[in-house]
Structure formats: C-alpha cells, structure tokens
Specification:
alpha+beta, Aminopeptidase, eight-stranded mixed sheet, 8 strands, globular
Length: 182
C-alpha cells in the first residue's frame, strides 16, 4: 500500500465496483446519516443483526442511533457504503472503530446488507478501516464476534486476521490484526 497523506486516507470519498458489477460509494459517516443508519439496521436480517450486535436488536433505539452516529473522526470513526443516486441513496454497509483508552488499539465492526454480501463490499470496508487506523498511528484492530459467524471467519482469515476463542465466552471469537509500520 502506498503511503499517502493521513488526511486523505481519513476523509476521501471513493466509488468502487464490486465483483457482481454493482457500484457503491464509500465515505466517512456523518451525524446526518442517522436516518440511513436506522433504515439499514431495521432492514438487516435477524441473523445479520444478531451477528453485528451479539444480541437481539430489532428497530434501533434512539440511544443506539446516537451512539452509532456520534462520530468524531478521531476516537470514533465510521465509513458508510451507499448505493443508488443522490436523490435516493441507501446504506448497504458500514465499518467502524472506537479507539481504546490507551490510544494504541481500536475495536471495530463491519456489517453489510444481506443482499450485498459475497461481492467484496465487506473486504472494501475493512480495508478502509485498516487504512484509517494506520493513518492515525494505531497499532492494532480487534473485533469480538459470534463464533457462529462463519462468513466473517473466512473473510478475516483470508485477510490475515488472527482468530482466537474468547477466553471469557466460548461462544465468541476475537479477531486481531496487527498494523505493521504503525
């Protein structure tokens, strides 16, 4: 990966063509994306919501939406994937991280709309997180996920993430990616 100005890595908007020829725009999330985020979560399958939130989330609460869209682009970062034209864009994926108190690592999460999975969007969103984390000088990204999420397990291993069973909860796995050169 070529080294670029950190600011560019953090703020740019990109348009990408997926393996199924669908096109998405990926950009930093803003507070104004609250309605898109609400619709996105509401329309995820129960399985996808369970894997994302490790529990029963149906219609997202106001408190959850506040937390998910309170992005300061410093300690909390998120990238939103959009499809459609400007008059009718819909969210089809999101990746995010929150920096730990020590400032060296961040917990991250990625979710892709059910009908947009298996086309490379999750990988693009993860790569955007990694690029942003490196630009910020973070040393490590990690994610705590359901051990039943076999799709994520395959993607994470293919991308070089380490996978270990959570010692505190055998129904969960912890994925870790060391960010070399950070």
């Amino acid at each position: 990966m070529s080294k670029q100005e950190p600011q560019e890595a953090l703020t740019r908007t990109v348009t990408e063509k997926l393996s199924n020829d669908r096109v998405v725009t990926i950009r930093p999330m803003e507070r104004e994306d609250r309605e898109l985020e609400s619709d996105f979560i509401t329309h995820l399958s129960p399985e996808s919501r369970h894997f994302r939130f490790l529990g029963g989330v149906g219609k997202p609460s106001e408190k959850l939406l506040d937390a998910l869209t309170d992005i300061d682009h410093d300690q909390r970062e998120a990238f939103i994937a959009l499809a459609g034209d400007d008059s009718r864009e819909k969210q089809v994926g999101v990746s995010r991280y929150a920096v730990d108190a020590d400032g060296t690592a961040a917990e991250c999460a990625v979710v892709v709309a059910d009908d947009w999975q298996k086309a490379g969007l999750g990988t693009l969103l993860i790569n955007r997180l990694v690029e942003s984390a490196r630009a910020r000088g973070l040393q490590r990204l990690y994610s705590i996920d359901s051990a039943e999420n076999h799709k994520l397990q395959e993607v994470a291993r293919n991308m070089g993430w380490d996978c270990k069973t959570n010692p505190d909860d055998h129904t969960q796995v912890i994925y870790t990616l060391q960010l070399n050169g950070a």
